Amino acid sequence: MRYQGPFVVKKVASDNNYICQVGASLRTYHANLIKKNEEPTPLPPHDILLPHAAVAFIKEDDPDMDANIEFPQIERKEFPANVMINDKLTPDQQREVRRVVEQFSDTLSDVPGRTSRIKHHIRLTEEKPFQIRPYPIPVHATDAVDKEIDNMLAMGIIGRSSSPYASPITVVMKKDKTIRLCIDFRRLNSLTIFDAEPISTLEELLAKMKGAHFFFQNVI
């Protein structure tokens, strides 16, 4: 586990986003990416907002790590017939909504898929391919790893490749003794030329919904 920081929290951007001072710039981080920086001495009682935070990956030994998180499954459990349509709509409007739901049945699914409309190209600082040798997988986890890979192949999340680049997978054991399959992309990240394009905030995305008449809500 590698941490960065501590960084000073400048202000609250929204309910779940915080603006932190990172070097000479300000960056916005979601609450899930922020952990309290434990100081050797207690903070003054008047400091209600955490004055420091460490940005890092979420600890896997956190008991609330997987709380209320629905992980994707290969078997579809939700279909167009399960969509609830507001009964305040007119009969014609309800039929139109139902038609749209049926038309995009494959997209409106609880099973993740993929799209071929957009392709992302990763630009690197050097052209020489790299291959990181695989990490050893614990014997007791090999069957679970094979099953996880087979599921992702079946869902189309991953595909077979003969790329000259190779990053190793690693296994993290969760509290319920199941595995979390991860990939160590540190070498790739160190060579990646990042696109300097800002990510839309929640407020911006909600503002784009102005004037919309239909909203779909996933009810579990």
UniProtKB/TrEMBL annotation:
The residue range of the signal peptide is none
This protein's source sits in the domain of life called Eukaryota
Instruction: Tell me the organism.
Output: Elysia marginata
List, alphabetically, the SUPFAM superfamilies matched.
DNA/RNA polymerases
InterPro entries on file: DNA/RNA_pol_sf (IPR043502), Retrovirus_Pol_polyprotein (IPR050951), Rev_trsase/Diguanyl_cyclase (IPR043128)
Designated name of the protein: Zinc finger protein
